[in-house]
Amino acid sequence: MPRTKDPVAREWEKWLKGSVPIIQITFDQATAVENAQALHLSVNHPLLRQAASHLKFDHMFNAALEVDASDIAPGDYHFGIYRWAKQGVKPDEELVAIANDPAIEGRLFTLLQSAKTRLNPQPFSQTEFDAIDAEHHSKWSTAHANHEAENRQFVEYRIHSLTVSHQARCRAIEDQRNRANNDKIRLMKQSELERANADFVLRIESLNQAAGSGDIHASALVFGKISVKKGGET
User: Where are the alpha helices (DSSP H) in the chain?
Assistant: First the structure.
C-alpha cells in the first residue's frame, strides 16, 4: 500500500523495520488506553486496511441458502447485504442487512452463521430483488441525512472545543509575554502567539471543510434467498 504521513502508519512501519519480533495487540480501545505499549488494531490501522484491500471483491454475489429456525415462519425469503462506507470527520464502515420480512432482517447475520448452501436452487431474477433495493434506498436516504447532521454537529463541537482551548492558550502566552522583563523573551512569546493563531486558523478551516464531508457510499455485496425450515424438517 502507498506510504502515508499518518502517525499510526509511521509507527507501524517503524516496528516492521525494527528488530523486535513480537508486539502486543488489541482490538479493544479501552485496553489500548490502559496499555500504551499495545498496538490498537482499529479499522483505520494500515494492517487492517491492507487485509481489507486483499479480501476486497469487485462484483456482487448471489447466495441460495437454507437454515433451521424454530421461531421464524417457514418459507423462502429474499435478502440483500450492503456495505456502507461512511465519510466525514469519523469515517466508518458498516454492513447493512435488508430483507422482505422484519424477522429475517433483524436476525440475518445470526442466521447466516448456521446457514447451509441450498442444493439445486432456482435461477435468480433481478426483478425479485427490486423491492429489496428500493427498501435499501429508503433506509440509506434516512441514514444519509442523519449522518450528515451528526457530522456537522460533531464538527461544531470540535470547533467549540478548539476555540476554548485556543483562547486559554493565547491568554497564557500573552500573560507570559506581558510579565517578561527581557525583550528577547517578549519577542519570542509574540512569535509563539502568532504561530498559535495561524495554526488555529488552519485547523478551523479544515474543520469547516469537514463539516460538509458527511456522506455514505453504498454498494451491494450479496443478493440471496434463504429458506427457513423448522428444526428437524427435511
Answer: 7-17, 29-34, 46-55, 102-114, 130-179, 183-211
pTM above 0.90, yes or no: no
Q: Give the rounded distance of the alpha carbon of 67 from its chain centre.
A: 30
Distances (CA, A) of 138 to 88, 128, 135: 21, 17, 5
**Residue 220: other Cβ atoms inside 10 A:** 16
Sign of the torsion angle spanned by Cα atoms 197, 203, 207, 210: positive
Q: What sign has the CA pseudo-torsion 161, 162, 167, 171? A: positive
Cell of 24: 502486543
Q: What averages of pLDDT result for each successive group of 10 residues across the chain (234 residues)?
A: 81 91 90 86 86 74 90 92 89 91 93 90 78 94 93 90 93 91 90 92 86 88 91 52
Cα end-to-end distance, the chain, whole Å? 49
User: 3-state DSSP call for residue 215?
Assistant: strand
Its sign, for the CA torsion 100, 101, 106, 111, is negative
Say how many C-beta atoms besides its own lie within 10 A of residue 25's C-beta: 13
Q: For residue 159, what is its C-alpha cell?
A: 470547533
Amino acid letter at 11? E
